[in-house]
Prior knowledge:
Helix content is 22%, strand content 23%. It is elongated.
Amino acid sequence: xxxxxxxxxxxxxxxxxxxxxxxxxxxxxxxxxxxxxxxxxxxxxxxxxxxxxxxxxxxxxxxxxxxxxxxxxxxxxxxxxxxxxxxxxxxxxxxxxxxxxxxxxxxxxxxxxxxxxxxxxxxxxxxxxxxxxxxxxxxxxxxxxxxxxxxxxxxxxxxxxxxxxxxxxxxxxxxxxxxxxxxxxxxxxxxxxxxxxxxxxxxxxxxxxxxxxxxxxxxxxxxxxxxxxxxxxxxxxxxxxxxxxxxxxxxxxxxxxxxxxxxxxxxxxxxxxxxxxxxxxxxxxxxxxxxxxxxxxxxxxxxxxxxxxxxxxxxxxxxxxxxxxxxxxxxxxxxxxxxxxxxxxxxxxxxxxxxxxxxxxxxxxxxxxxxxxxxxxxxxxxxxxxxxxxxxxx
Length: 394
């Protein structure tokens, strides 16, 4: 069903084009074919008022249905499109124009095309972005250049999954086909640029395990809420074909900040963003230990191999403390101690205890001095929230 926000945009009706008069003609710079500009007189443009939509919804929808082929909106072309802007600069602000020409590129390439302009703005037609199904108008989203076929539905892709991702979201039906061809239930699917979360949503519904990676706010505004909706049983996309009613779960992880930073003197130090528990877990992992604190032995905070342990402390380590630990550590077991500083000679005091300075134990194993993990993209592409392409130069 056509959404109210779309109806607010496409609420003009070209009831009559009137008489047209040729006011300009010139060859296109790109292909030399003629461009004809006509000005219309006696035309009629109406609108459908949405002020009383709450009480007249059925009647208003009927008006849209009856005038479907003539409903339009206007929009301003981007400044980079010199051809279109050149045309509109010559047009009166209160008139209707049509331009007939043959584009040499774009969606109407090599086709004789007629464009309409109202009040010096390009007209975009509802019929080009929606279709009639039964007694309803259904909004569509063009599938752009993704693989598609007649069995992949066109209807309202923009709202699939409950998140909006204009011009970049892939249909769940498409991902369903890809995963059916390339994986089996229980397989692990990786999408390292998760976007709106389509791959993860489809994998979840199809019984695949999955890993999705995304940067920035999309993690919270798109991926996370979409997967929560999938678990709750949302019914868009392939839910019907997969008999999906909800269930399962997922884990959501955030990349930790840089562990090692430089202080004002240029020395490598532990970031103040880490508390003691985070520090222990991070250093244990970086040194190949599984973080698993022993509730009865304070210095046993993780293990790697049988009889090999790690102890991380944020305090100065003294010889007396090390001797106390050594009395409890059997000779056949080994211990790695990481501390910010310690008494001279502790590193060689016991053969089965290795004492390291914290920054030195991790400096070669992680990046430091960066506050984010953004990709180094010089000119990232901008997503166009509009469902229309700019018309290409003639």
